[in-house]
Amino acid sequence: MSQLLDTINYPEDLRSLEESQLPELAAELRAFLLESLSETGGHLGANLGTVELTLALHYAFSTPRDRLVWDVGHQAYVHKLLTGRRGAFGTIRQAGGLSGFPKRKESPYDTFGVGHASTSISAALGMAQAAAEQGEDRAVTAIIGDGAMTAGMAFEALNHAGHLNANLLVILNDNEMSISPNVGALSKRFSRLIAGRWYNRMRDNADRALARIPPARDFAKRAEEHFKGLITPGTLFEELGFNYIGPVDGHNLEELLPILTNLRGMDGPRLLHVVTRKGKGYEPAENEPTKYHGVTPFDPVTGAPRKSGGGAQAYTKVFGDALCEVAAADARVTGITPAMREGSGLVEFEQQFPERFFDVGIAEQHALTFAAGQACEGLRPVVAIYSTFLQRAYDQLIHDIAIQNLPVVFAIDRAGIVGPDGPTHGGNFDLSFLRPIPNMTIMTPANELDLRNMLATGLALDGPSALRYPKDKAVGLAMSGPPEPLEVGKAEVVREGNGDQALLVFGPFMGAALEAAEATDATVVNMRFVKPLDTALLAELAVSHSHLVTVEENALAGGAGEAVQAFIGTLDAEVEVRCLGLPDAFVPQGERGALLTEYGLDARGMTACLQELAQPRQVARECSQK
Ligand SMILES: Cc1ncc(C[n+]2csc(CCOP(=O)(O)OP(=O)(O)O)c2C)c(N)n1
Ligand SMILES: CC(=O)[C@@H](O)[C@H](O)COP(=O)(O)O
Ligand SMILES: [Mg+2]
């Protein structure tokens, strides 16, 4: 029973409560989150940690007129519950349901669409500047975690905000965790500060700051802050032009509410350092915050997942194990992750090779240039990165790695459809943005053996390379012997057909392709390399077949199919090329298998395409435009 929560649909309902009722509401919100997310899965830990902070923000500020900008947005579930979306909460992250992140189309309270980290201060600064320009008196607040604060972009925005003397509040939600333990000097400094004797002293300072220190005292205050800065992060923010206040206990509403109310009335750049606990109130999540960062449906009593993952290993795990094998054989191999140790399969690697493992924080750009530096000195860095996050580092990829032809291997996970995270995390574009880059070798494993061998192939090359694989299970093939380099640019004919049609498969679709090939006795090729293409084989197939159908889990625009089309266009051949892949639209959230079916990337879709092509020409239609 949620007696209070049932009466709260919008923040104005919340604001009609007595402050003394808020702790009870916080308890109800936690119980609601736990019950609901145990059914649907989602980002549990961060949301349990921001219950009081979110309540206090909506209580103290006049949202949506006052703008709240959440960083990443994985911690904004309570915000959704308080802003008219409690009834739909059971649909979160499912097809057609609520997004797992703030989304402008979903609610006027969602001021900025997010999913990727470290954008909040820039966006909030833009909004604050617009408010100033428009003569609007509205508060703008960015809420950013200590993990997201490790990104350069956050500091670029702080630097600019100080320069503009913008009317902006930044709340640093510090739980000492990214997905895994946070990294870096700033994070360590936060921890020392919170744990140490300076904590109480700083709280006194917060009280004084809230008494609105008059300008005459500003100089003295700054001198004191500088002294504090010898051991606190306060000076850093102060030097950037922010009035630093904190740290304050982010679970103590009595402390938070007056501070936020006062901060609402203050001008200039302000940074409130709030300390919270990830997973607060749910013991399993408090004890193992990494495990409970993002969860699948689980039993709330024990915390155990409802479904245990049987069957073949995930590609992520295959990669992680293969990296350990190649690193054991080659001391030059390093493993780099921008804050995605678990998701990218590097846990084992860190355990086995701690001195060769680098979690650089949420700093994709730095990850790439750091790898470039290592490569210059003879190391063989492997950057394990999600397709969507590699987008952040495009210039580093071109300028720092490809132009210098440095041997950096990209193990690109979450390539293609990601499922519940939706469009912000979709890995639909990597083939398109990698293909035009000179010197790149691009590989698409069809199964776990390919993946292992492609890692070895990348490491044997003298230039940059990428292998990309989805958030999915591999095929379940037996793996024996060490990963071995493949012949670069060489495809494999897996099934010889009758010569009419050929399926050219880029990626893990071999099972579906072989099934589809039965219907029309089509040839099936594991293309393996998007760049360089096996042009010799393509030239043969173009002569011996009437239709070539490419299959890839990437945007059709700029993808592997287009590469094949472009090459075939240079030949004097009668063959027709059709492309199956992702459309010119952002792939919505939903179940991965269902989305693959929707886009024709399963046996049924491929069969339908082949059968359609087998019809007389006039009735054939674009099978890629289902
Ligand atoms: C650019 C980018 N890189 C990586 C991620 C993956 N990611 C999502 S949340 C998260 C941890 C964020 O830590 P923090 O900001 O401290 O938030 P917390 O989960 O601790 O509340 C990471 C690494 C991302 N969303 N965006
Ligand atoms: C919010 C965020 O960016 C991550 O937590 C992401 O949701 C992880 O995705 P995976 O679950 O695919 O690792
Ligand atoms: Mg954190």
Describe the structure.
The chain is α/β, with parallel strands linked by helices. It has three domains: 64-73 and 97-287, Thiamin diphosphate (ThDP)-binding fold, Pyr/PP domains (Rossmann fold); 315-468, Thiamin diphosphate (ThDP)-binding fold, Pyr/PP domains (Rossmann fold), CATH 3.40.50.970; 492-619, 3-Layer(aba) Sandwich (Rossmann fold). The model is unreliable at 197-203, 212-220 and 618-626 (pLDDT under 50).
What tags apply to this protein structure?
binds thiamine diphosphate; 3 domains; Rossmann fold; binds 1-deoxy-D-xylulose-5-phosphate; binds magnesium ion; 39% helix; seven-stranded mixed sheet; 17 strands; 25 helices; alpha/beta; 626 residues
CATH superfamily of the largest domain: Thiamin diphosphate (ThDP)-binding fold, Pyr/PP domains
Radius of gyration: 27 Å
Low-confidence stretches: 197-203, 212-220, 618-626
Sketch the major β-sheet: 7 strands, mixed
Quickly count the domains.
Answer: 3
Please indicate the percent range of residues in DSSP E strands (runs of 2 or more): 5-15%
Subunit structure: Homodimer.
InterPro entries: Dxylulose-5-P_synthase (IPR005477), THDP-binding (IPR029061), Transketo_C/PFOR_II (IPR009014), Transketolase-like_Pyr-bd (IPR005475), Transketolase_BS (IPR020826), Transketolase_C (IPR033248), Transketolase_CS (IPR049557)
Family: Belongs to the transketolase family. DXPS subfamily.
Enzyme class: transferase
